[in-house]
Amino acid sequence: MTVVCESSAGWLVDELSLFRKWYQHSTSCQDADHKKNQYGIRGDLFLILRPHIPKQSTPVSLPTVCPETNPTATNQKKKRKRSCAFNQGELDAMDYHKKITDFILEGTQPLIQEGFKKLFLQALSVNDNHSQTEPGLCNNPCQLAELCNMAKSMPLLNFGEHTVLVLESGLYLPQETNVLSCITENKSECPKVIHFIGEKYIIPPKSAFLMSDVSCMEPLLQYKKYNIIVMDPPWENKSVKRSKRYNSLSPNEIQQLPVPALAAPDCLVITWVTNKQKHLRFVKEDLYPQWSVRTLGEWHWVKITRSGEFVFPLDSNHKKPYEVLVLGRFQGTVNSAGRESGISLPPIPERKLIVSVPCKLHSHKPPLSEVLKEYVKPDVECLELFARNLQPGWTSWGNEVLKFQHIDYFTPLDAAD
């Protein structure tokens, strides 16, 4: 994530610029195939010109009459009934929102103003005032999640049997079961195009991944210890159950993740949390204490349009234009290598804002490597759990870990925006 500007409150970042940097030609790259076939991330995936919900249409107060009991209601379609009053979860979310609104407003506005000065953000023109269309996405999905259900019935390999598959250009990956059993690495300075189950995927340089179900994480446990672990768990919620978009995990299942076994001394643990307060409380009061992780702070990712507006109105009762990250420090070892190294690092701030134009892909989170640089040692080992895309210098794990690496999300470099 290229930092456009920075303030004491946080950063305005350009995700698209960072993604393009990951896949651009490197002078140290000697791969002839890569020099012939270079790709860049599609610019339309980050082209959000207008808010998803216009500000003037946002409800800001409770209706005084329930729709289902209002005799003058014009909408006669049958809808799922709900009471006029907010439930406890909604009240908790509103209370939390009140506490952070001023910080988000006061911290975001100077960054947006500086973004206009640096021409990263621009006011809408007359030509931009058309209906916002969604890009055509991945016409031939390979259904990786369904494939990874195979992992549940696979026998675990014995210690020492876990292998690492090192990628070569144009590689056709072996049978699915082999891929699910081992770490796959791109050790080179160049992106690699691989073929897997009849589809093409672009693997960024210096990256590694394990595609598996939660029941088959053994290869990851035998691979490395990590100084940064970021995870975006598939939280349970009603909309996910209705849409069946992905399988969710219960709080108890999330607690069973082997994070302490993966963490190096003083590992920085970062968890993406939905705006449901029960999830935030669970992470801070149950999950982190069980993992011997001490909570350090709550950061917020604020999503804006190219014209500098929140993607959802800040006072929206439906969705908020921000998401929460809970940062903590693994306390499993007293004498840590970090303290013995003599490197002086600033403490993790309790509050920070990451402001960016988000990707249009569902549940696509911004990379955190750029904003974390000043708080961690150089060349640390980094892991993302429940990943849907890969990052240079990181190991990624999940049952959809290659999803956003599909070639449909890229364009030949000479045709990139």
Automatic annotation (TrEMBL):
BP GO terms, sorted: methylation
Family: Belongs to the MT-A70-like family.
Superkingdom per UniProt: Eukaryota
GO MF entries: nucleic acid binding; RNA methyltransferase activity; site-specific DNA-methyltransferase (adenine-specific) activity
Gene Ontology cellular component terms for the protein in this record: cytosol
Keywords: Methyltransferase, Transferase
Name of this chain's protein: Methyltransferase like 4
